[in-house]
Amino acid sequence: MAIEYLGLSAINGPMVVLEGVSGAAYDEIVEMTVDGNKRKLGRIIEVYEDKAVIQVFEGTEGMGLNNVHTRLTGHPMELGVSTEMLGRTMNGIGVPIDGLGEILPEKMLDVNGKPLNPVTREYPRNYIRTGISAIDGLMTLIRGQKLPIFSGNGLPHDQLAAQIVQQASLGDDSDEQFAIVFAAMGVKHDVAEFFRRTFEESGVSSHVAMFMNLANDPVVERLITPKCALTLAEYLAFEKNMHILVILTDMTSFAEAMREVSSSKGEIPSRKGFPGYLYSELAALYERAGIVKGVNGSVTQIPILTMPNDDITHPIPDLTGYITEGQIVLDRELNGQSVYPPINVLPSLSRLMKDGIGEGYTRADHQAVANQLFSCYAKVGDARALASVIGEDELSPLDKKYLVFGREFEHRFVGQDPHDNRNIITTLNIGWQLLGLLPKEELDRIDTKILAQYYKATKLDENGDLVDAETGESAADAGAAAQR
C-alpha cells in the first residue's frame, strides 16, 4: 500500500525537502498533489536518514509547506512510448501539447535508458544524407554516429536544424524506415513556432516526434527533455527496427539548467560554475547513440550547442568534443558574408566518415575529393594572409588562383539555398568543378586514375559562371556529359 506524506519541511527554488520518509530511493519519482487538485511530478535527488530532497519538474509555484500531499511511486522516471508519437508534439516530459488528445503508450520505459553492453555494439556504417554539400561531402554523417553542431548566438543553427529535419534521408534507393526525434530545450516561443510551422508546411511532420521545452518552462524539466527524446528514439530503433535521427537543441540550455539546479543544491562548482559531473551527464546522453547487433535500427545524434562568446574552449563544447565523433563548426565571418550554411570547413570533421563513404556507399572518388578540397582550402588561408600583407596584385598567378578557388568554394560548395536538397553525386560533381579552377599538378591528394577520370579544367566566364576551360560550355553540363 502506497504511503502518502502530508506537508513539506522546506522549499528552495525547484527543490523541496520531505522529512519522516521511509523506503525512499535515489532517482525515484514522486507524485505531488497541490491544494487537492493540481498534480506535479518530482524526482528524489538526495536521501539522508529520513529526509528526501525532491526536484519538482513543473516548478514549485503555488506549493506551500502545508498544502502538498506527496506519494512515492517506487520507480524511476518512466515515459510511455508509442509509434503514435511520430507526428505529435509533446512538452519536455512527454505530455502531448498539440491538442490532439492523449497518446496510448505501447510500453513504459525508464528515461535513463538501459546500460548497453559495448560488445553488442556494431561499428557504424552507411551514411545519412542531409542534402547539404558541406556536411555530406566533407564531414559525412554516418548512421549510429554522434556529430554535434557548434554554433554561436545569432548564427542560423535553428534554420540549419530545420533544413536537416526536412531533407534528411537514408538515400534515394533505401526502403528502410526512417524517422526523426526532435528535442528543443529552453527555446523561445517564436523559435518553437518556427520549427512547428516549418515542419508542417514542408510535409515532414508525420515522421517527426517533437519534444518542446520552452524558455519559460521549469528549468528542471529541461534536464529530462533529452532523456525522454532518446528513450523514444531507442524504442523506435531497437524495438521497431527504424533508423532514427535525434536532433537536440540547445545543449547549452541543458548544461546551464544543470548549473542552476546544482547551485540550488549547494554543490561545489567546477569550471565556469558548472558541476563537476557535467562530463558524465553529457556522456550519458551522447553515448545513447549507436547500432546494436542483430537489430536493423540505429540511433544517430546531432546535438546543437551555442558556444558562449564563440569560445570553443568553453566547458560545454570542450567536453562535447571529447565524447562525440567530430564536430560541425559554424563561422560568424562566413555568416557576415551571407554564406548559408556558414560552416567553417577547416575545424570541422567527422571521425567515422571514412567507413561510410566510397564505393558501395556513395561514390569511389568521395574520400579523395574531400581530402583534396580540405587541402586546397587550407592553402587559401595562406594566400589570403599573404595578400593582406603585400596586396593581392603582388601575388603569384598560382596564389591568385587559390583566392578565386576559395571564394567560389565558399559560395558554391559550402553555400547553398536553404531549400536546395543536393544528392551526393551533385555534391561531388560541384567539388570537381571547383578543383578544375586549379592546375592538375596541384591536386596531389587524388590518385592519378581517379584524376584522369574526373578532372576537367574550368574557369570563370565574364558573367562569373563556371565553364569548361576548353569549350566554354557550362561546367555543370560538361560534368554531366562526362558522367554519361
UniProtKB/TrEMBL annotation:
ATP synthase A/B type C-terminal domain location: 355-455
The keyword Cell inner membrane belongs to this UniProt entry's keyword annotation: no
Listed Gene3D superfamilies: 3.40.50.12240
Transmembrane segments: none
Homology family: Belongs to the ATPase alpha/beta chains family.
Function: Produces ATP from ADP in the presence of a proton gradient across the membrane. The V-type beta chain is a regulatory subunit.
UniProt protein name: V-type ATP synthase beta chain
Organism: Ventrimonas faecis
Lineage, highest ranks first: Bacteria, Bacillati, Bacillota, Clostridia, Lachnospirales
Gene: atpB
